[in-house]
């Protein structure tokens, strides 16, 4: 199915453009489940829908792709004024801070269309794309370099696939539950509650980085950025998850149903995201995001 999401989301400011048509099909009963990139799924879903499973996460990082035949491995090597195509305000706001000599411009279309604009139509000198998308389409060989989170925090939920279902569909829920990945789900619960508390989404420069260690330490780093790249607020926090004592049943947080997950782990992951967001809000994140949102609308990238 074709969605409206590939149409200047940062100008329209709609955080559910990628998922609306699929959700309508779910509600109508035309389909029994829908698979989304989690980063495109808003934290508030229609009342009778939920995310029934989150699959194991692919690398959530962003990657630079140069034209076929190029030997370049860094944006730093490009000439002043070189055009870098990306569909993300988050990437633009962060990369402008380091690469002030480059011109970051919008690129639309599916992956093949974007690569054609880079390789054949020569509209760009490089693209910035999600590592996960390239790998899932067997195009990992196009990755020229992967951007570390220290340089470019990734999008909330990036690299994870979400299975959306009807909340009252017990049969489908029992099937998809087996697909749920605990570590990915807990990281994404923290990330999504961070975003929801900040009232952010696809239309603002907001990024995260998270990890869950074998010693049960869940860490989260989050930042908001001025559209032009001149200001930023970045904080990080972590929590040691309590050993499981009670399995959570039929309760939903930030759109995610949590059957089979430990109640204490879910609560601690959600609290980590909210607490980190509060740190940023105390330092002026709300005002910075509002300014970034307005600057993006003015630019009409």
Automatic annotation (TrEMBL):
GO terms for biological process: protoporphyrinogen IX biosynthetic process. It holds the Pfam family Porphobil_deamC. The keyword Amino-acid biosynthesis does not apply. Residues 185-281 form the Porphobilinogen deaminase C-terminal domain. Keywords: Porphyrin biosynthesis, Transferase. Its EC number is 2.5.1.61. Pathway: Porphyrin-containing compound metabolism; protoporphyrin-IX biosynthesis; coproporphyrinogen-III from 5-aminolevulinate: step 2/4. GO terms for molecular function: hydroxymethylbilane synthase activity. This is hydroxymethylbilane synthase.
